[in-house]
Amino acid sequence: MNRCITLAALPLLLAGTFAHAVTLGTPFLTVDDTQRIFCIVTNVGTQPTTLSVKLFSLAGAPLAPQVDGCRNAPLAPNASCAVQALPGDVASCVVESSSRRVRAAVEVTSGQGTAVTVIPATGG
Q: What is the pLDDT of residues 51-68, one digit of tens each?
C-alpha cells in the first residue's frame, strides 16, 4: 500500500520541481566582423536563481563563447550576467533558469562598444 501511495505522489512532486523553470530564446543575429553579440540575463526576483546561458549556430550547434560571465552559477537578485559570442558569429541565445523571475535580451554592439540593437528574449 505504501508503494502505491509513493508512486502515485511522485508525478506531483516532480511537477512541483519544474513548475517555476523557464526557457527563454532570442532570434538568430548576423553581425559583421567588427560587431559582437551579447546575451544578457537579469534576475528580477528576490532569490538567487540557477541558470544556463548558451549560444547556438544557425545549424543548432553549440558555440563556444568568447566570454562567459554567467558560468552557470547562481545569479543574485537584481544582478545581471552576460555571455559574449566571437566577433562576426551568427548566433542565438538560449537561457534556462530555475526561476520565472529572469529577463534576457540579445544585444549587438559596434566595434567601439556602442549598442546597435537590443532584442528581448521570449519564452513559452
A: 999 999 999 999 999 999
Question: Looking at the DSSP assignment, which residues form a beta bridge with residue 54?
Answer: 94
CA distance 115 to 121: 16
Indicate the pTM of the whole model: 0.80
72 backbone φψ class: left, alpha, beta (φ>0; ψ -120 to 50): left
C-alpha cell at 46: 528576490
Looking at residue 86, which CATH number applies to its domain? 2.60.290
Ordered strands of the 62-63 beta sheet: 62-63, 51-56, 92-97, 22-25, 122-123
Number of domains present in the structure of the chain: 1
Which grid cell is 36? 559582437
Q: What is the span of the domain harbouring residue 77? A: 20-123
